[in-house]
């Protein structure tokens, strides 16, 4: 014990106290006469008592009016599909005259021509012809030094974006 540091001695004392307390709880306190006895492992539990207890617990909790209404509406036949058909959605997107993008901002800031490949820099990302843009639903159709043509798959039309310097 002379080679142990003060911190190590304190940790050992705490560990010994825990072991002594566990032994007391397991050997002495667990054998008190008023303690409830556990059922032997071989004794079966009756299903009727388990189901009766569960049914009693469920009957205690009542559904609110809102929860009852939600459950009733969820089970009814709705009749109509709550989602827009594709043609109505396209018409809604193109309601600005079909000119192009209402919710997306695309900036054409650079043009690269290596002889074999043409690349356009759109929103600081390089794209080749036919690649889908990072913005979902758009495909780069053509590249010129002064403009790019982008196809909007959602609406089904094309629009041009001029080079911005």
Describe this structure in words.
- With 165 residues, the protein is an alpha+beta fold.
- A hairpin with a 4-residue loop joins strand 5 (147-152) and strand 6 (157-162).
- The protein has a three-stranded antiparallel sheet with strand order 1-2-3, with no helix packed on it. It has a three-stranded antiparallel sheet with strand order 4-5-6, with no helix packed on it.
- The longest helix has 23 residues, at 6-28.
- It is flat and about 95 Å long.
- The model has no long low-confidence stretch (mean pLDDT 80).
- It is built from four helices and six strands, in the order ααααββββββ.
- Among the domains are: 1-33; 89-162, SH3 type barrels.
List keywords for this structure.
single chain, alpha+beta, 3-stranded antiparallel sheet
- Give the overall silhouette: flat
Strand content: 15-25%
Spans where pLDDT lies below 50 across 5 or more residues: none
In which order are the strands of the major sheet placed? Answer: 1-2-3
Please report the total strand number as a whole number. Answer: 6
Assigned CATH class of the domain at 89-162:
Mainly Beta
Mean pLDDT comes to: 80
Query: So what's the oligomer here?
Result: single chain
H and E string? HHHHEEEEEE
Contiguous helical run count: 4
List the helices and strands and how they pair.
Elements: H1 6-28, H2 47-60, H3 65-75, H4 86-93, E1 108-113, E2 118-122, E3 125-128, E4 138-143, E5 147-152, E6 157-162
Antiparallel strand pairs: 1-2, 2-3, 4-5, 5-6
């Amino acid at each position: 014990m002379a080679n142990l540091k003060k911190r190590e001695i304190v940790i050992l004392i705490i560990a010994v106290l825990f072991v002594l307390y566990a032994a007391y709880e397991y050997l002495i306190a667990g054998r008190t006469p008023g303690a409830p006895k556990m059922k032997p492992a071989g004794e079966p539990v009756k299903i009727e008592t388990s189901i009766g207890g569960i049914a009693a617990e469920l009957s205690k909790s009542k559904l609110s009016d809102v929860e009852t209404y939600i459950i009733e509406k969820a089970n009814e036949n709705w009749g109509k599909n709550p989602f827009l058909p594709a043609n109505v959605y396209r018409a809604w997107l193109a309601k600005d005259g079909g000119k192009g993008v209402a919710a997306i901002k695309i900036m054409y800031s650079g043009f690269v021509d290596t002889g074999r490949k043409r690349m356009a820099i759109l929103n600081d990302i390089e794209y080749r012809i036919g690649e889908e843009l990072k913005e979902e639903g758009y495909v780069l159709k053509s590249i010129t030094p002064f403009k790019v043509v982008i196809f909007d798959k959602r609406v089904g039309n094309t629009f041009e974006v001029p080079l911005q310097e």
